[in-house]
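Hi support team,

I've been running sequence recovery on a batch of backbones for a student project. Most finish fine, but this one hangs at about 90% for roughly twenty minutes before it completes. I'm not sure whether the input is malformed or the queue is just slow. I've pasted the structure tokens below so you can try to reproduce it. Let me know if you need the job ID as well.

Thanks,
M.K.
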């Protein structure tokens, strides 16, 4: 077996995290039985500690901390203590904690968007409990993935009211964080169709719209963690654009990474795995290298269902780290290549080529915009975006010819 490239792994491991659900996954699907032996949350934490991965993210239902299932407060707190001991022994921190608002039959028609106020209150209470636990774990984020907050029959829930209910829940969580003095922030995870056909928080733009509904002082407390490639590729969207929009809005919390064949069901392949789009994967890392080189890369995916051996989970972890390190190295080298730099030049400017500053003298700016003797035909004749050449450079670089 070819050894893993440690220099690629070392380049990204410090900013990496794995969802515990990745490692607990036994390789089952709706049509096939499990192929891997079950392991405990403590086993998963120990494995990441052995591999020197600094962070793990915990899902309350996966680690025995679902307050709808473990209802005894003393037993609940005892379980928190067991996990804290396991994390400390492994030297692994908690990056993100998330409450399961979609599993129980009580939320089958929505959690915070349910038409039933008791269900909404139950869901909010679970979110507040998650914030308490996240503080105990020292987590940076609590992610709200509202997997059952969507619709099959739109007449059931008024969509305007649904978005107001989501914004209300997020706002109340922000107020609770402030009241308790917690340092944790909230992230929204947009997904268009998992597990329902039409989820309300479907895209990064939708998530940003919800954040915009919050009071101004609460908006900085909320970010977005897109799941790429999976949920952009499943819907035929552009992962590079998703990151760009979040960076421009200063709302990129972190990335959930995995592999996906475009326009298929949710595969949750490892990063670069299967028939994943290599160019989109490259552009994800190009955005990271260019705009957020310190962004936490959290792997939200599973080992292939074909992998049943005793080392399957360890190889899954190392494979994701190597693949992301490889593509990040490709992106960094592309940006540093002299030919690329020459072609791109000053392409990242935002201004309109006018000396007047619209922030200080708007009238002068508008006057200059209208005074220029610009001719659209003449401009079109000399315009040379070099898109085709840049695409060629990307291809040459990815395939090892540049």
């Amino acid at each position: 077996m070819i050894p893993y490239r440690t220099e690629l792994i070392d380049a990204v491991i410090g900013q990496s995290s794995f969802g515990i659900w990745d490692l607990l996954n036994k390789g089952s699907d709706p049509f096939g039985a499990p192929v891997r032996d079950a392991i405990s949350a403590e086993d998963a934490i120990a494995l990441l500690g052995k591999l020197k991965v600094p962070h793990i993210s915990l899902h309350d239902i996966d680690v025995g901390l679902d307050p709808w299932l473990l209802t005894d407060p003393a037993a609940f707190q005892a379980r928190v203590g067991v996990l804290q001991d396991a994390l400390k022994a492994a030297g692994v921190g908690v990056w993100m904690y998330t409450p399961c608002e979609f599993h129980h039959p009580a939320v089958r028609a929505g959690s915070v968007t349910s038409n039933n106020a008791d269900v909404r209150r139950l869901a909010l209470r679970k979110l507040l409990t998650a914030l308490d636990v996240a503080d105990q774990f020292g987590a940076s984020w609590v992610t709200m993935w509202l997997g059952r907050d969507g619709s099959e029959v739109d007449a059931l829930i008024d969509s305007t009211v649904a978005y107001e209910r989501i914004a209300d829940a997020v706002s109340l969580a922000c107020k609770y964080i402030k009241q308790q003095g917690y340092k944790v922030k909230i992230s929204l995870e947009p997904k268009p169709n998992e597990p329902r056909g039409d989820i309300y928080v479907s895209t990064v733009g939708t998530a940003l719209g919800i954040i915009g509904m919050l009071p101004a002082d609460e908006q900085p407390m909320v970010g977005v963690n897109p799941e790429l490639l999976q949920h952009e590729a499943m819907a035929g969207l552009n992962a590079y654009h998703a990151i760009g929009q979040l960076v421009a809005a200063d709302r990129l919390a972190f990335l959930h990474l995995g592999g996906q064949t475009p326009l298929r069901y949710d595969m949750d392949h490892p990063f670069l795995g299967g028939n994943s789009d290599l160019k989109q994967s490259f552009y994800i890392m190009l955005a990271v290298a260019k705009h957020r080189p310190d962004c936490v890369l959290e792997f939200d995916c599973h080992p292939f269902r074909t992998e049943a051996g005793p080392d399957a989970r360890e190889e899954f972890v190392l494979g994701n780290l190597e693949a992301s390190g490889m593509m990040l190295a490709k992106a960094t080298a592309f940006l540093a290549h002299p030919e690329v730099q020459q072609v791109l030049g000053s392409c990242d400017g935002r201004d309109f080529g006018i000396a007047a500053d619209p922030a200080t003298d708007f009238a002068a700016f508008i006057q200059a915009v209208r005074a220029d003797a610009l001719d659209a035909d003449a401009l079109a004749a000399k315009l040379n975006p070099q898109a085709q050449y840049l695409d060629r450079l990307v291809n040459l670089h990815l395939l090892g010819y540049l």
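--
Follow-up from support: It reproduced on our side and the slowdown came from queue contention, not your input. DSSP finds 15 helices and eleven strands in the chain. No action needed from you.
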